[in-house]
Write a structure and sequence with these properties.
about 250 residues; mainly beta; 8-stranded mixed β-sheet; 2 helices
């Protein structure tokens, strides 16, 4: 099991130019104290002091029932009241893809686990493509924090990936010959696109089917004290934060 802990990783600016090239300025320090020599101050999200609890919307922490609709109802209620915290209490809550909203913090208590559904169909996007377990598009003032774990339950995805490669599927981006099998897409654990004032803090991310955390074209992103764990299975790529995250 490989564990990476990110301390005070701050993505300050992430913008795309007219030519489509993406530039990023960021600072990263592997220490228990923030780097004092870096004079950058990203804006942190300002989350209202209100709270909803997912178990009040029917979520069950038995590690088996799929709670996607309970999560969606809780997030919808949070949005309707103008934002606040969506609390995940202690226990294992299985879910399919969920979408964050502005002015919201997804808060995982110690001992809380959000585990991804192992049903591939749960991640299929209408019109094609695949959804991340936790997504957000053009939202601002958003946080994922707490002492709990977000578990991508990647094993079934990795098993299918290895089977497809063994059957001759080419790598992503490589040409596919007629009759050659195609590699199936795998969901990212957290994918945030065109978002601003984002905080990821103190959670553990583990076993994503593909990349664990992808901030795409985002600004003012702060990642603080996040642990990322995944087995070193080759040739499967489950990087913490992909080096070219801005272009994905």
């Amino acid at each position: 099991m490989k564990i990476n802990r990110l301390r005070y990783f701050t993505l300050v600016l992430l913008t795309a130019s007219a030519s489509g090239v993406v530039a990023a300025r960021f600072a990263c320090a592997q220490s228990s104290q923030p780097p004092s020599s870096i004079a950058i101050s990203p804006q942190l999200p300002n989350i209202p002091k209100r709270r909803v609890v997912i178990t009040d919307f029917g979520a069950v922490s038995d590690g088996q029932r799929v709670n996607t609709e309970a999560f969606r109802r809780a997030i919808s209620a949070c949005r309707a009241q103008g934002g606040g915290e969506v609390l995940v209490p202690r226990g294992t809550f299985v879910t399919g893809p969920i979408e964050l909203t502005s002015n919201m913090a997804l808060v995982l208590e110690r001992g809380a686990v959000i585990r991804g559904s192992e049903d591939f169909k749960d991640y299929e996007k209408r019109g094609g493509g695949i959804l991340p377990l936790i997504g957000g598009v053009r939202v601002s003032n958003v946080a994922i924090r707490g002492e709990g774990t977000i578990d991508g339950a990647g094993a079934p995805w990795w098993k299918r990936f290895r089977a497809e490669r063994a059957a001759g599927a080419p790598q992503q981006g490589q040409p596919r010959a007629p009759g050659q099998p195609q590699e199936s897409p795998r969901p990212k654990l957290i994918l945030l696109a065109d978002c601003s004032r984002v905080l990821i803090q103190s959670v553990t991310l583990k076993d994503s089917p593909q990349f664990h955390l992808v901030p795409q074209r985002c600004s003012d992103v702060t990642i603080d004290d996040v642990a990322i764990a995944a087995p070193p299975i080759r040739p499967i790529r489950t990087a913490s934060i992909p080096p070219a995250a801005a272009t994905w």
